[in-house]
Every structure is written in structure tokens, then in C-alpha cells.
Amino acid sequence: MQFDDRLATVLRMQVGNERAVNTQFRQLLDLAGSAPEGANGELLQQAFARLETLCGQIDAHTRAAMIREPGMRLRNPELIAFLADQELPVASSTMAAARLDTAQWDALIPTLPIPARALLRHRRDLPPRTSALLARLGVADLVLPEPELAQEAAGTDLAQSVAAQPTLEIDPALALAEQDAREGIGALV
Fold it and tell me: Three-state SS for 91?
């Protein structure tokens, strides 16, 4: 009951200026992030709707910084899923700050966007079963392999691949015109 009263109070706040917007966003994050089992579902849905509205008024980097603030509680899988689907700075901060038990992670991870899963993979404090789930889902670093390794993996030789590329015919008159235009622009600057 006390949780519902606090949430209702925050939802009644008027947000006329930037400071009030930021304060309400922070308070809703904290309350929704620590919502107990059996909390008023209607109030929580209103909180999520208000968070959605506030996200349009606060830039992503500011929201990400609020999520990273010490003491911010992100223990509600629904809120974590909501934030993980936002811009990369917000998703990154959310994946770093989220605190769930193994069963909650197991239920949430398959629903997360792939970039959020990849961010989550870098956490070293996840339960072993959660790390195994990420591995089973094929979550890996989103890093391209070194060019030499990519060529070896493709089974082609770099020289063969370059030789197979079509050559471009360059009109000498067009090349001179472009050079003159660049020099003329350089002289104007």
C-alpha cells in the first residue's frame, strides 16, 4: 500500500520545467524499478506511460546518467525491458545497472533486443545459468574480425579478390575538371 501511495503521489506531480521533468523521471525510475510483487498494475502502467512521455523530453545521455546514479534500483524486469529497447546509451546503462535473480534473467533475456543482449554479455556478475543462456542464444561481441582472418575464413586470397573487382575507366577531362574545381574551392576558403 505504501508503494502505491508513493507512486500515485509522483504521478500527480506537475512538470512545468526541466528540473521537475528530470526529478519525476528519476523518481519514477526508482519506484517502478523497485516495484514489489502485487503492486497496483494500473498505477504501474500509468508510470510506464509517463516514463514514455518524459523520455521524449529528456535526451538519451541524461537519461543514461540518471540510470547509472548510485542507489538507482532496477529490479523490475518490465522496466528493464522498457529501457533496454531505447537508445544505445540508455540500453547500455540499463544492462549495467539491472539486478535480477536467475529466474528473472532467464525469462527476460529472450525478449531483449539483440544489442541489449550483447551489452549484457559483458557483465561478469551474472549467474552461471544466465551466462549459459546468453551463449546458447548465440550472443557474441558485435566486433568484425581482423581482415586477414576474414579472408582466411572466406577461403579466398586477397589478391584474387582484388583482381576480380571491375576496373573503373576515368575520363581524363572529367578528372582535370574535378581537380580544377577542388583547387578553386580551396582558393575561396
Answer: helix
